[in-house]
Amino acid sequence: MSNSSSNGEGNGLRTIIIGAGMAGLLAGIKLKERGENDFTIYEKNDGVGGTWKENTYPGLACDVPAHAYTYSFAYNPEWSSFLAPGPEIREYFEDMVERYGLENHIRFNSEIDTCEWRGGQWHIRTKDGHEDVGQVLVAATGVLHHPNFPKIEGLDDFAGPSFHSARWDHSVQLDGKRIGVIGTGSTGVQIVGALAGRASKLIQFQRTAQYIMSRPGVAYTEEDKRAFREDPSKIEMIRDNPRSAEFRNLFLEAILKPESTALDDLEAMLIQNLEESVKDPVLLEKLRPNYRAACKRLIFSNNYYEAVQHPDVEIETGAIERIEPEGVRLKDGTLVELDVLVLATGFKADQFVRPMTITGEGGMDLEELWSQTPRAYYAVTVPNFPNMVLLNGPSGPVGNFSLIDVAEAQWNYFDQLIEPVRKGECLGIAPTMEALDAYDVRRKEAAAKTVWASGCKSWYIGDDGLPQVWSWSMDHFWDVMSKPKFDDYELFEAIAAE
Ligand code: NAP
Predict the structure, then answer these.
(1) How far is the CA of 245 from the centre of ligand 1 (A)?
(2) 301-332: per-residue pLDDT in tens?
(3) What is the CATH number for 299?
């Protein structure tokens, strides 16, 4: 049992943070800013960065502008380009650990197994048997980290190397090989963009064509970086770029009001990009989506259309029958022979804190509450799970937004919410079930009207067929997150029996 379970330095509360990715580090930094040092970040991996540590595939980059995908309090004038490559983002988070003195707060290779609210405190246990106790639980486990292995017959029969995009095997030689990539999401698009010209044959198996938005990834010169260093307002100009804001507004209107002309305008812009970029009419028709734009997460790329026109690249639209030792057998009987098979088939987006067992007040199991679908009041808190916050949790804004901005707003909300506990006015605080139910009704009504619900297949859609993501404007999100509505919360005063 950790002996650091009592309130520690700063007279704050002891906080247990799950995950040393972007959101978990943010929580640690924010606690330190308050002078609170009594916290531990538990990380299952041997390093920080979350998704930016787990994903190492060729072409990995963030399609949100680098200066916008940065903590608002820690600008980084050194970004090498408008869109940062994945390894640089991982390094940014490693720098944050050093800059904010988080090293001694992180426990690596420590996967939490159980969290139990008992006696007014959170008791946690890791897979290797370590135990700890705190008053506050921050679940910063990320959204897209459980690889989705497709249900394709014979997946294990492939004779050559085969791996999921988030488990890239760097020991595998790619140059001159016949490489198959299953999937055309943001990941598959980035991988194909990077591998075109390296493989002797690169075949991308496309079940659904994608809308691609052009976003040039201009490199920053030393002069640019100096200017960013000397004048942070130049960074702010990128973060608050009116042209980006204009596009964001069009994009949000297209999502929230698919009947509006905004969606037609967006679609026209994307089809123009396709038609101006792809010369071969057969390939062009293969790449033409047959559903509404923005129904799936919009993909930004400056090299994909160029890559698919490379002589060694092929888009295979034939349906997959099964995987065989030599390659991929299509439903029409064709065998596509391969040396390497990459599964860019996405993630199980409904997992969040799973597979941990989390037990709240009165022994309530989170699994029970989430038996239909993962739920959280305004995406952050859960009834009967006092003093627990989910950063980037279920029904929050995801997709084409900076998740850093989202997590910062959520932390700001929770920081205010936990104040009565900090002041000793109660032991715990959690939303009422009525508040969550009412929120869910409103959320489902709004979700059903979005373009995400217009009939395409995407990871936004939950088991009930509705988008499980924030379905209102971002202004509404910032507004709700600016101040908790305490009337929707209940306070836990008494210490429950052990
Ligand atoms: P994804 O968007 O879920 O795409 C998965 C792909 O695999 C889809 O093309 C899907 O086809 C295909 N697929 C799945 N099962 C299949 C099967 N049985 N047979 C054939 N095809 C199958 O996953 P992702 O590309 O990894 O991206 C997930 C999310 O990660 C993104 O939406 C984004 O939020 C995030 N991401 C962000 C960046 C960034 O730059 N910011 C980069 C990469 C990823 P269907 O479309 O037909 O379902």
Answers:
(1) 26
(2) 999 999 999 999 999 999 999 999 999 999 99
(3) 3.50.50.60
Q: Report pLDDT for 249.
A: 86
Q: What does pTM read for this prediction?
A: 0.95
Q: Which domain holds residue 101?
A: 15-146+350-492
Helix 403-417 × helix 474-482 angle, to 10°: 30
Whether residues 279 and 167 share a domain: the answer is yes
Domain boundary among the residues 343, 376, 404 is at 343
Please report, in angstroms and rounded to a whole number, the separation of the first and last CA atoms in the chain: 17
pLDDT over 70 percentage in the chain: 97
What atom in ligand 1 is closest to the CA of residue 64?
41
Query: Ligand 1 pocket: which residues have CB below 6 Å?
Result: 61-64, 144, 150-152, 165, 182-188, 190, 205, 207-208, 297, 320, 344-347, 399, 457, 459
Q: Which atom of ligand 1 is nearest to the CA of 343?
A: 7
Q: Using alpha carbons only, what angle is made at residue 203 by residues 202 and 209, rounded to the nearest 5 degrees? A: 130
Calculate how far, in angstroms, residue 113's C-alpha sits from the geometric centre of ligand 1.
Answer: 28
CA 443 to CA 378: how far, in whole Å?
A: 9
Domain end call among 343, 376, 391:
343
Residue nearest to atom 8 of ligand 1 (CA): 183
pLDDT tens figures, 329-373: 999 999 999 999 999 999 998 889 999 999 999 999 999 999 989
Return the structure tokens found at 403: 């998740």
Q: Does any domain span residue 252?
A: no
